Amino acid sequence: MAAQTDPLETLATRALDLVREGAVVGLGTGHAASAFIRALAARVRDGLRVRGVPTSEETATLARGCGIPLVGLEGELDLTVDGADEVDPELNLIKGYGGALVRERIVAAASRRQVILVTADKLVETLGGRGRLPVEVLPFAVPFCRRRLDDLGLKPTLRTQDDRPFVTDSYNVILDCAIAPLPDPAGLERAILAIPGVIDTGLFLGTAAAVLVADGGSVRELVRRPS
Is 92 part of a structural domain of the chain? Predict the structure, then answer.
């Protein structure tokens, strides 16, 4: 009996078709992005010339170890390949379960195109279906931000790791907010960002140009409809 192919490896192989010789590629954070980085590194070893811009220190360590040359944000990126925690039918996203949402936002904004790799279980009818929205905040502002987020009905919880507050690469912390499916993600995003001390939210609205979805043994491409 043949071994089943890892769906993330299948997604990564498909995403390689989007990478051109000489490209500068944003490298996301998380399981799907890591699979892409390993697949891209194999092409680099075969002679493909690319440079990567990592969205986290974890990603930078992986990419360097795999032999992918890294650069900063000095110029525009051709493409960013990343994962997501939720994707709705309009290709809006919730990201940040891995804690790299701020750098992921910046790298996506610096790119001509953001492509998201997900398995089918990440697709939701309405954002918020998985019940969690990360919000990155300044450590000094945590008590205040918790109260204001609670006022919005979000029930924030400080993310921890090894019994200590989880600290992002930008030296902030994350409040994971309990949410139900969101009738107005854009309105909620505005309300959260209006709280002094909030750095960013996990709502990525209108950033993805395309989403590659591993479903069974195949990959389907979802493309953002023109607004």
Answer: yes
Do residue 144 and residue 86 come from a single domain? Answer: no
60: which 2 tokens? 């930078």
Structure tokens given for 216: 């069974």
31 assigned to some structural domain: yes
> Which of the following is catalytic: 57, 90, 104, 125?
104
CA distance 86 to 133: 10
**CATH number of domain containing 167:** 3.30.70.260
Within 8 A by CB and 6+ apart from 194, the residues are none
- The answer to whether 104 is a known catalytic residue is yes
For the full predicted model, state whether its pTM sits above 0.85: yes
User: What type of residue is 169?
Assistant: D
Residues 150 and 214 sit within 8 Å (Cβ to Cβ): no
Give tens-digit pLDDT for 43-86.
999 999 999 999 999 999 999 999 999 999 999 999 999 999 99
Distance CA 9, CA 221 (A): 16
Whole-number Å distance between alpha carbons of 114 and 121:
20
